[in-house]
Specification:
By secondary structure, the protein is an alpha+beta fold. 15% of the residues lie in helices and 30% in strands. It is built from twelve helices and 42 strands. An eight-stranded mixed beta sheet has the order 35-36-38-37-39-40-41-42, sandwiched between helices. The longest helix is centred in the C-terminal third of the chain and has 20 residues, at 748-767. The chain starts with 62 loop residues before the first strand and ends in a 13-residue tail after the last helix. The relative contact order is 0.13.
Length: 780
């Protein structure tokens, strides 16, 4: 259960295979705006739902973190004249010009930085998915922008030299394109886009210029793809085509053969969904039928497509062997029903097979989840993410392991490193494995020898590494955000962290930000808890301010050292903002995360409210002006909090739930409920204990409930039930339901409306300054 009302850089998010978080995200983030990344870059495991990303190592003392990384990150000089420039000249010409040092002509007069506003949410450009070319010379990446005028978000692919310089737009700003991947020879960029016929195809673009051409034309949308080592083939991840997909493809083929213009057809009445699976719902998909996801190999020269895996299973995250003969992938092929567990393993299939993968090699046999395979350069080993304690679900630490490619005993490289770890990549010489680690409110890029041992941090410090790629040259490109800046692309030449994009420089130069403090405090039982504290931008020591407590989604997630629009917005409006990482959070070890297993709203409640007590004890918060609110598990936490204390003057519960028995079979967590809580008809005492709905008579806090009307992650039913109960009891409450929104909101107009309602509700009830409880623009 995550949320989507804070701009960071995702999901979630979730890093590619980064975290599973329970009531939260499947993509990047809880309070992170969706970046439109393809499914392949997102973990779809267990409780990924109510949260965002993932990663991790054990004690910070186990990793050497050179101070130079931390300092260079914040002191990286700004490159004068660095701008995002649209592609208006042939690339061959543009390359010769745009990567030369440039000096701006007329410099705009400096403006006085101002407090951040609601509309600034849409000024942040989300930089994501850095892909470095094999020779280490170029980096392709995406930039997503939101338009209130068009009420949509669009993603565009850019390219920049690893030495810095002006970035070059590689795709049109009119149609979204993402998931850029270099051909092995570095001459072409392949990417995903719906720029033709409303289908997501793989498109191919010559780096030196020209128009992109569709590489594939399939009946169904392409979910992911990867180049073969020789560049002659591409593996595609495709869902089984639905009857509608096949009918539409047949009509397109007929119209093309007859030379007719392909037109959108008048939509027909939708056929009924026929469900017979144990897991039958997924947010942003809806009802799940027997349409599984499989691997296909596309031959570029022959333009032939061959299905290489099949069966009533989902196959994902394919990786080519260095010789191009095999594909490693992750799949749950357990019997009798893979829907009832998380036993995914790493498998091999011959890339040239013609029997749809009838003969597979099982590489791993761990009963937990094994995912994200990455080959060693010599083709003898495969690194992957492994979860060793399946009964702990996402509370268990995910490790990096290496297995022989032919199967055999696995070696866990991070067994003593008690932090969630993800996104393994071999170094070009095969001696080390890189990975992202979730540690103490940060995500760092770490490295460990293939034989195990000391873990070092090529990119360390209080920052947030969301994704990265490694070139054959050994160069690294990473997407990094810090507390004072949205994501940008960085390299580490000679071990020095160097920012090479300046996408958000103009925006950052216009706004005043507060510098969050990473603090530690004691909970009720003496447990040390950490969190981020944001003071108002005009903070005066000794003055007491209103405060907002913001429980995070997940619950298996964390607040990180990243730019967060929502926290800055609250601080700009005069609040002390409290972002705690209570028990259940990642980054502090498995014991800390599993402390709330089947015990929600207890220890995490104590830890969340302990941060409020800390801020009051520091003399900075007025105890009579407190607000609370969160999204996903943060909304669930809010329901727990207001059912146990009346100290808060206002609450906002977004995408929350309080009566969990009513969610069994209604949301997407049935498998998780079975593992953690048991069956509601058999284990009622456990279910009742974690359901604050039964304590609704204790609630006196004016509460605003919110949700998307098609959210299958944490359905709006949870908010409706709480709203109805409080309304029945005569309490102050309101319900806002956003049309056509999933768990992670997409429409900029809805994102803006939500932010405005946050400010109005808290101003009215917490500050009690006369502001209407509804924003003036929408009060009617």
């Amino acid at each position: 259960m995550s949320g989507t009302d804070h701009v960071g850089t995702a999901p979630p998010g979730c890093p590619a295979e980064q975290r599973s978080a329970r009531f939260g995200f499947r993509q990047k983030a809880v309070e992170l705006r969706s970046t439109g990344q393809p499914e392949a870059a997102v973990p779809t495991g267990s409780w990924l739902r109510r949260t965002s990303r993932t990663i991790a190592p054990t004690s910070i003392f186990l990793c050497y973190t050179p101070t130079v990384f931390f300092k260079s990150h914040f002191l990286c000089p700004r490159v004068t004249g660095m701008k995002l420039r649209p592609l208006v000249l042939p690339l061959s010409v543009l390359f010769a010009l745009s990567f030369s040092p440039t000096i701006s002509g007329a410099q705009a007069a400096p403006t006085t930085p101002r407090p951040i506003t609601v509309d600034d949410y849409f000024q942040v450009r989300e930089v994501d998915d850095p892909q470095i070319s094999a020779d280490g010379q170029w980096i392709a990446y995406t930039v997503s922008t939101s338009s209130l005028k068009d009420d949509e978000e669009k993603t565009r692919i850019w390219m920049v030299a690893t030495t810095g310089g002006d970035a070059v737009a590689m795709t049109s700003e009119e149609i979204s394109s993402d998931h850029p991947r270099w051909s092995p020879d570095g001459k072409y960029l392949a990417f995903l886009s719906k720029r033709s016929e409303g289908r997501t195809y793989v498109w191919l673009l010559n780096r030196l210029g020209g128009e992109a051409q569709p590489l594939t034309k399939t009946a169904q949308d392409v979910k992911d793809f990867a180049w073969s080592p020789d560049g002659k083939r591409v593996v595609l991840v495709l869902p089984d085509p639905s009857p509608e997909d096949l009918e539409a493809a047949e009509e397109r083929t007929k119209e093309e053969s007859e030379g007719k213009e392909i037109k959108d057809k008048k939509p027909k009445a939708q056929r009924p969904w026929v469900v017979d699976r144990y897991l039958f719902k997924e947010d942003e998909i809806g009802y799940l039928e027997r349409l599984r996801t499989h691997l296909y190999v596309f031959d570029l020269a022959g333009k032939t497509l061959t299905q290489v895996t099949s069966g009533d299973f989902d196959d994902k995250h394919p990786a080519w062997s260095p010789d191009g003969k095999f594909l490693a992938f992750s799949s749950n092929r357990s019997t009798p029903d893979p829907d009832r567990n998380y036993d995914s393993n790493i498998w091999l299939v011959a890339a040239d097979n013609t029997d749809k993968g009838a003969h597979l090699t099982q590489v791993t046999t761990n009963p937990g989840s094994d995912d994200s395979p990455a080959w060693s350069p010599d083709g003898k080993s495969i690194a992957y993410v492994t979860q060793l304690e399946p009964k702990l679900l996402v509370y268990a630490t995910s490790h990096i392991a290496v297995s022989p490619a032919t199967g055999g005993e696995a070696k866990v490289l991070t067994s003593t490193f008690d932090r969630v770890s993800s996104e393994p990549r071999f170094s070009p010489d095969g001696k080390f494995v890189y990975f992202i680690a979730d540690d103490d409110g940060t995500q760092n890029l770490c490295r460990v020898s293939v034989g195990g041992g000391e873990i070092t941090r090529p990119i360390g410090g209080r920052l947030m590494v969301y994704s990265y790629s490694v070139a054959k040259s050994g160069d690294v490109a990473a997407q990094i955000t810090t507390m004072d800046r949205p994501s940008e692309i960085f390299t580490i030449p000679g071990g020095k962290l160097t920012r090479i994009t300046h996408t958000n420089d103009e925006f950052i130069s216009q706004v005043r930000l507060t510098a969050p403090e990473y603090i530690k405090f004691k909970s009720k039982d003496g447990t040390t808890v950490s969190g981020y504290l944001y003071k108002p931008i005009d903070y005066v020591p000794g003055k007491k301010y209103p405060a907002i407590l913001r429980p995070h989604g997940g619950p298996v997630w964390s607040y990180y050292a990243e730019f967060t629009h929502l926290a800055q917005l609250f601080a700009a409006n005069g609040y002390v903002v409290l972002y705690p990482n209570p028990r259940g959070s990642t980054g502090y070890g498995q014991a800390y995360a599993k402390a709330i297993d089947a015990d929600w709203g207890n220890k995490d409640f104590q830890d969340d409210t302990a941060m409020v007590d800390y801020a009051i004890a520091q003399g900075m918060v007025d105890p009579d002006k407190l607000g609370v609110g969160g999204w996903s598990y943060g909304g669930i936490s809010t329901d727990f909090i207001i059912a146990q204390t009346t100290r808060f003057k206002a609450a906002i519960s977004g995408a929350g739930s309080a009566f969990f028995a009513s969610m069994y079979g209604h949301d997407e967590y049935t498998r998780d409920y079975d593992y953690e809580l048991g069956y509601p008809w058999r284990d009622r005492a456990v279910w009742d204990k974690v359901s604050p709905f039964y304590k609704v008579t204790n609630i006196t806090t004016p509460t605003l409930f919110m949700g998307g009307d098609i959210d299958s992650n944490v359905p709006v039913l949870g908010g409706e039930q709480m709203y109805q109960a409080l309304k029945t009891l005569g309490r102050e409450t309101e319900l806002v339901v956003y049309p056509a929104e999933y768990h992670e909101f997409k429409a900029p107009s809805h994102l803006k409306d939500r932010l405005e309602r946050y400010l109005a509700w808290y101003a009215h009830y917490v500050k009690a300054d006369g502001t209407p409880a509804r924003p003036a623009a929408v009060a009617k």
